[in-house]
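yo

u said u wanted the structure for the complex thing, so here. seqs first:
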Amino acid sequence: MARTPAELVGANPGPSFEITMDGRPVTALPGQSVAAALWSAGILAWRTTRNTGRPRGAFCGIGQCYDCLAIVNGEPNHRACLVPARPGDVITTQEGHGHADLGV
Amino acid sequence: MPISASDPYDLAVIGAGSAGLAGAVTAAGLGLSVALLDASPQTGGQFYRHPARAIGAARPEALHHDWSAFAQLRRRLEQSDVSLLRGHHVWAVTKEEGALWAVHAVTGADGTAERSVRVRARAVLLATGAYERQLPFPGWTLPGVVGAGGAQAMLKSGLVLPGKRVVVAGSGPLLLAVASSLATAGAQVPAVIEASGYLGYARHPRALAANPRKWVEAAVHGAALLRHRVRVRLRSAVTEVHGTDRVEAVTVSRLDLDWRPVQGSGRRIECDALAVGHGLVPQIELATALGCATRPLPDGTSAVALDGLQETSVRGLWAAGETGGVGGAQLARSEGELAGLAAAARLYGRPVREERVRELQRRRDRMRAFADAMALSHAPAAGWTSWLTDGTEVCRCEEVTAGRIREAVTDLGARDARTVKLLTRAGMGWCQGRMCGAAVACLAARGGAVEPPVERRPFAVPVPLSALASLDEPTGVRTDSAPGVGD
Ligand code: FES
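structre next:
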């Protein structure tokens, strides 16, 4: 019986690489979305809501809910469930509407 | 493929899932020039979602049902002249001069590459599929609560699980499929919590008898659940999620026939994730923006209304698959092929393959009957709103609580989802009501008949302003596909 999804499908991925989430290193497999890489590191939240500052992460998994918005390499409002992880990506928690750093 | 870059395509197909693929290869096989657009870097849609090639999955079919049908469609696509435009997020379809359609899309993995593309075609096939219906309950915004279809999608494409111990809850047959794939992939699934019973199916013996493949599918999932000792609890719902920063446990309550929790029946189940969903909602924004007629489905959602040959009420615009009502991949394939044949017949001005058309129509009608029986059996009963406390968030984007929506309904006189939206901002956030629309409509109806909200949105997906600004630039008719991760 398979213990992990990767074993189940007989995955033989290219070399894994690192991205960071708020400075913490996270291992990603080539072809995984940012959200998938974060889930596999046990990270479920990377955004806080505008009004009450509550944590959120991926919910619908298919690009419909926009709950998974993240700051990717300095740019806010990326849907982490759709964006593929690339080596060296810097992901940071998106607070509120994500424009805090931009002064708007 | 059009002869020169300035020629329009014969057919633009939106969505590369089962219906869109079948429609595209059928039309191309008859000699039509076809563009196939999809937001994803891969074909397959949600049902056949699979890992990117770079993950090197030797057995992607281990997480799928009926993979060979998809493999065959994919082969036919590779052998065809269809222009596959991956990473194209279609936000509108408009009418152009000379009876042409224009399909507008923004490109990139999440539509933020800000290259806007216009594809012109003589006919359009909408195969946009469905998304999950969600009903809120206290704690459903906590990290670790994920869509049931979402958990499935993340597993199929990214090979990840939201937790180690995952409760699956909601209603509809998708839950069995989700629970069996999560368990097969190594998650512990303490229970599947289904709000309906399965007895409703027994009232439609004809539809059941005519669709034996559905039984085989159910038996496969059932066997997997037994093997993993997953308990299925019928007529129950998760009525509360516990935890501060993430899911720690859920409370499961028994429901009466109206889906009201039975007092004192709450039981706590420890878990670190909850996968929840209450069936699927056809994605019809592109069609309604063009004024296509819709039809109500037995579960309270709406689909695009279609004639016997899959054409919408707007001439030259076809639809297939879940866009016309949720019914599964097999039905989507039949409808896609039918639409492809019908569009070709229209463009040629004479019928093509009449024998095959009649066979597909028979098949479609049989499967539609089953889909209707299924939708009716799992339709939410009005009492589900008693799961909500005043503080429960209903609109996830704008953080609008059930209390504020009830206030808009009882004190301010709102009678429909639109008015509630104007008064509270529920449904005005990023997702444009996709997650809360069904719930808000129920609350506005106050237990009476729910009017399915037929939303007319100018844009089917949020579009960067810069993409709109570039619209007046002369965009090529043909376009190269955006760089994608690939199948
Ligand atoms: S998880 Fe819903 S948009 Fe990404």
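Chain B touches chain A through 56 residues (CB under 8 Å). The two ends of chain B are 22 Å apart (CA to CA).
cya
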